[in-house]
Amino acid sequence: xxxxxxxxxxxxxxxxxxxxxxxxxxxxxxxxxxxxxxxxxxxxxxxxxxxxxxxxxxxxxxxxxxxxxxxxxxxxxxxxxxxxxxxxxxxxxxxxxxxxxxxxxxxxxxxxxxxxxxxxxxxxxxxxxxxxx
Length: 133
Prior knowledge:
CATH architecture: Roll
Helix content: 10-25%
Number of helices: 3
Shape: elongated
Strand order of the largest sheet: 1-3-4-5-2
């Protein structure tokens, strides 16, 4: 699958007093990118919840902060599937400024029932992911 690309601007509210992006905001940036990625795949998360009772949660994240983003920067978040199993998806996400990588994360998502128990990914979701692997 080609990387999914999500663009964003760094606003004043994203930064600390020095104008540098606050570390926790990178997690918000990659969350927004994952939401856009799922939507670009043609998956309606609200429908999955309503029809299948399935929601997605981050099970694990491993993050590396490599360079600082600053107020006014234009960033791109690239999302790429690394692995797909019956109940989880492992992704690589990178936050970049031009060609410079600022932040990387390996993210494991799992499918959960609304009661919080692990469940298999709906076939519809797996099919759409498999088409893009």
